[in-house]
Write the structure tokens for this entry.
Amino acid sequence: MSHRFTRRQFATATGAVALGVSALPAASAAANPVAAPVHRNFPRDFAWGTATSAYQIEGAVNEDGRGPSIWDAYAHTPGKIRDGSNADHAADHYRRYKEDIQLMKALGVNAYRFSIAWPRIFPQGTGAANPKGLDFYNRLVDELLANGIEPFATLYHWDLPQALQDRLGGWQSRDTAKAFGDYAGYVAQHLTDRVRNIFTINESATFIDFGYGAGPVEMAPGVKLPQAGLNQVRHHVALGHGLAVQAIRANGRAGTQVGPAENIVACVPAIETPANIRASEIATREMNGGYLTVILEGRYTDGFLAYAGKDAPVFTAEDLKIISSPVDFVGINVYMPQHYVVATEDASGFALVPFPSSFPRMESDWLRIGPEAMYWAPRNLAKVWNVENIYISENGTSAADQPDAGGKIHDLDRIMYLRNYLTQLQRATAEGVPVRGYFQWSLMDNFEWPDGYDKRFGLYHVDFATQKRSPKLSAEFYRAVVAANALV
Ligand code: BG6
């Protein structure tokens, strides 16, 4: 990169290093630990990928028979998206997918996680399928495979067909879970001859909490429910996951691998003492009680039911069996530590430590920097539930991404973030935590939900006026990690 600096900047940048080197005693290259970097490798056959989702990149919302989704309606409602935008065009990936696959190729990745837009496949949510919608994913998958990139498909990344919202109240109805199972079966029937890995639902916690009002209502469908209604939605989403697992087993090619992609509530020991580590394991189980725990154990914990009280979801034993249908892997999206935990003497065994206001954050104010979450989230997932195959289905960060005079984005903060999180991931894999792959969020800048185009998460910058893609410095960092299969 040095040629991009002026001579003066280059001299300043290298001056300190030059001084340091001349002050070192003479030593042979072999004996000098600086000259012989220790490679911190990832496992062989590790899947290195990037991740995206349909509504955030595809655009072409009226193309080839796609039906409207709840995000079309939400984004077009004045005042909902901070910059007043929507994803009608987004990154125009629907037309530019071949070019985008070349961007992946340039990174050297061997895997790609994308999502399938349910309203392209079933424009009304149920009923007649739309073969033209499926054709897009056929073309995408074929092009990925032709370029040596393994497709990992997500079935639901939040773009529910609007028809199901209108008819059923979306996930407030069990019938939506049933419709999701049917859609999953259809996709499995048509794509699993080539797609070997399927994520069911992306981040249930995010779209439920922000879409149905556990906190501020910031996402589609933009409904504010009381606690009992929220817990019922959570239950229907978990049921949808289970029905999808069963439908994929029934309709897909034998051996298709399936699992969730959840933003696990990452519980990190505040100080890594044996007692706090144990407390973080207990907290992991309880704090994920509404989704991952019931998927992996087939029961709501006593703690979850006691906390929910009269607002607990209504469910049957049969529901729990469906929800806990065995999965092949668990995908977790890890962006930050949700909680730091210490051990307590009381019955719960753990306490959540409040965050100080000075705790560091990235460009998005929700994105706290805590790289050790990338160690503890998969480590506790493996420890608490004996999960044998884990994917980091998302990790990444927004950044200010200011271009220099030549237009290049030197996103050192994103590199810092990724390097530190990957260091913790390598710590986990070196200890034998069974993480099989990592998907960086995101391949390119996209429509970031309520933030519109105001927040950028891509390794590639997208100029949304021209649709030009340009690699940021972080793309070069990631390419180097992937090429070495090690930290660089
Ligand atoms: C994850 C989502 O929560 O984080 C992605 O799965 C999303 O779809 C990413 O783009 C960044 O979050 P946000 O809310 O800042 O867009």
